[in-house]
Design goal:
Blueprint: H1 39-50, H2 55-62, H3 66-87, E1 91-92, E2 95-104, E3 111-119, E4 124-131, H4 135-148, E5 149-150, E6 156-158
Parallel strand pairs: 1-5, 2-6
Antiparallel strand pairs: 2-3, 3-4
Helix pairs in contact: 1-3, 2-3
Length: 175
């Protein structure tokens, strides 16, 4: 995406050899998300999302466009995913529940499945996978659980009975 040249995207230092020259790659943004609104507004939108308020309602309440709310929710989701990938390690697995839900994007002829795994006792969402409802995605989900958890004792595994979730198809290795 190409941005319109604006004054602050070129060097303002008169002693710099790139002074007032655009698109030289010497100007680096230090803002990760480019919100164009206050961080407080972003935090309030994310909090409303966590509380279950829908995009359209948030858009009306905050007087921001629907697309802005959607983009902020996407950014928050990405940041949460990065946080989980870096910090969810060595969780003791006591009871975990795996399930899947069908949703649609665009047309109803192309369903999208969201697979989730939660450690029930701690209420930590250990893993998620988005894709087709198949064995490969179930295996990815369960392998992410194995990578993130510490299996010390036998644990309880609950699911809806979808055939690929059958435990004997997987080798559970305790470290």
């Amino acid at each position: 995406m190409k941005y319109r040249p604006v004054r602050d995207r070129c060097c303002q230092n008169e002693k710099c050899q790139e002074h007032l020259k655009l698109d030289k790659g010497n100007i680096i943004r230090h803002s990760k998300y480019r919100l164009h609104k206050s961080r407080g507004d972003f935090d309030k939108v994310v909090q409303m999302t966590v509380e279950g308020v829908g995009i359209s309602s948030i858009s009306r309440i905050k007087c921001f466009s629907w697309n802005t709310i959607f983009r902020w929710q996407y950014l928050a989701c990405q940041a949460a995913g990065e946080f989980n990938n870096q910090n969810l390690k060595d969780i003791e697995l006591i009871e975990f529940q795996a399930d899947e839900i069908c949703t649609f994007t665009g047309i109803k002829k192309k369903p999208m499945w969201i697979f989730v795994a939660i450690e029930v006792w701690s209420r930590i969402w250990i893993s998620k996978v988005v894709g087709s409802r198949n064995y490969r995605n179930i295996k990815t989900l369960l392998n992410q659980v194995i990578d993130s958890c510490r299996i010390v004792n036998p644990f309880i595994f609950t699911t809806d009975g979808f055939e690929p979730f059958r435990v004997e198809k997987f080798t559970w290795i305790s470290a």
